[in-house]
Design goal:
three-stranded antiparallel beta sheet, about 325 residues, elongated, 3 strands, mainly alpha, 14 helices
Amino acid sequence: MGRLLLKVGGLALLMLLIVLSSPLSGEGLDFAEPQTDIKTATRTKDDAVKRSELMKPHFANGNQAMQHAKEVRQQLQTATSDQKPTLLARMKEDYQTAITEYEQALEETEVRDENGLQAIGKIGVIRNGLVSQQKAVDMLVQDKDLPVILSNLGLAYGGIGQYQVAINTLEQASMLKPAVGTYMELGTDLAQVGEVPEATAACDKILTVDATAKIAQAGCYKNVAIVLTNKGKAPDAIAPLQKATLLNPKDALAWKLLGDSLSSTITFESKDGKIVYVIPPGTLEAYQRCLQLDPNGPYAGQAKSALEGFAQLTKPPTEGKEKN
């Protein structure tokens, strides 16, 4: 018989799975840390030193605002519904402050170079009128602070939901200097705008920067999956979650999310006049791994409910009552 996509709404036994697909609202995301280190490479020109001194206060202020935003984001995970609007507004304000400060730091960062036109032609450091063509020519790759400023600025733009601007900025930063945190945020933001292959490709690049950063790469794939799940594209989250659990098999949330994503692809077929549910391989194992890793964690209850629901689905049909 033909195989059909499972319609959960009409199946009481699967209603418990609905809660598993609710948006995480940022919870569980592995966020890239701002690259706050200012690498003060030796510069021979006095004007370069002066520019660095003008830039540093703005950079520090931006970093401080980003730290405040991070703290508010953590508070949101345990906030009540009436507290969330105020916290969200405060977090957005912190990100906007960071953007203003980083943009000012960017304006103070100038390095003149004979190869400037070629460098800017490749990198395209011209964003929404912030940097003019002539200014871009003057802002060249020899400045060691520029990629860090751009990466932090991209993080801040992502924080207020301006994902395309964030992507443009982060791509520039990665061209100047590839970094683990830059690729993590780039992967998340690309997923936000629906560019899934590009998002996973950004995650793929993390180990080319640091061969030991497997946990960070796993977090990047998980971020992409969370974004896709929140957008109602749970089946698309399966592949990145499989990569995430392979790289970091001790992440209970990643296993739970993998179980949810696989559950979204359950089908059923009619066999001998009976409905038989086809559960994708690895679904039960994903929930079981979640429970093994964190039996009393925040997602344990959902994992247990899912397994109980599957036990009912796979239960042999009840035999008819014996005739008197």
